[in-house]
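for ur thesis appendix - Ribonucleoside-diphosphate reductase class Ib glutaredoxin subunit. copy paste whatever u need, i formatted it the way the template wanted (i think)
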Amino acid sequence: MVTVYGRSDCAQCTATKRTLEIKEVEHVYLDVEQFPDVCDYLRSLGHQQLPVVIAGPAHWSGFRPDLIVAVALRSRD
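the 3d part is after this line
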């Protein structure tokens, strides 16, 4: 399962969600404005920008279609 942390006014967050949907990757989207305590957790992982994507042990921030494709390929195995 992939978890995406983002914000409604974030273009990179929207692009990430859309790409996950296109690639049919099962995911959960959490708006950090509704869960403000999660920001400390994301910072503890070293992230300074949204979206933050957590896919198993891997995590990254920003819109990374290359990594989304890699996750999609792994999820089909």
